[in-house]
Specification:
mainly alpha; 7 helices; 149 residues
């Protein structure tokens, strides 16, 4: 029995030793990275600017996520007015609950009220109020005119 066990273990060890071959590191890792780059600083900068130009004009189907927001799409007064209307319509309370349900009747009612105010004369009234508040605070603290926005 011991001889059979010894022969079996020896056969397995021999099979493992024969199948284990040494593989050069370059074959499974790749060529070593040189310590010094072979591109000059100007070449890297030119490649970066060309790739920015290429990816900035990439078609929408190649982009991931929402489209980039346009800088300055809304003024500070418009953002403040939008926030005030959001709070006044009750959306701040409805949307921040733990049991938030966008399909509930209460949420739809609050959203309709917000959209009505956002697209109605209330929005422009809030924008004018925010602009006048900002103008008064700038004049009070002597920071110039609000037209510099």
């Amino acid at each position: 029995m011991n001889a059979k066990l010894f022969l079996g273990i020896s056969a397995l060890a021999l099979a493992g030793a024969v199948s284990a071959q040494t593989v050069p590191a370059e074959q499974w890792v790749g060529a070593p990275i040189p310590a010094m780059g072979h591109f000059s600083r100007a070449e890297v900068a030119a490649d970066l600017s060309s790739s920015r130009a290429t990816y900035a004009s990439a078609p929408a189907e190649y982009r991931v996520g929402p489209a980039d927001a346009k800088t300055g799409a809304m003024s500070r007064a418009e953002v403040a007015a939008d926030e005030r209307l959001w709070i006044r319509s009750g959306m701040g309370e409805v949307a921040n609950r733990d049991n938030f349900d966008p399909n509930s009747a209460e949420y739809r009612q609050q959203m309709a009220a917000y959209q009505r105010m956002r697209n109605g004369p209330e929005f422009m009234a809030e924008v004018q109020r925010a602009q006048s508040t900002r103008t008064m605070s700038l004049a009070r603290f002597g920071r110039g005119s609000a037209a510099a926005e």
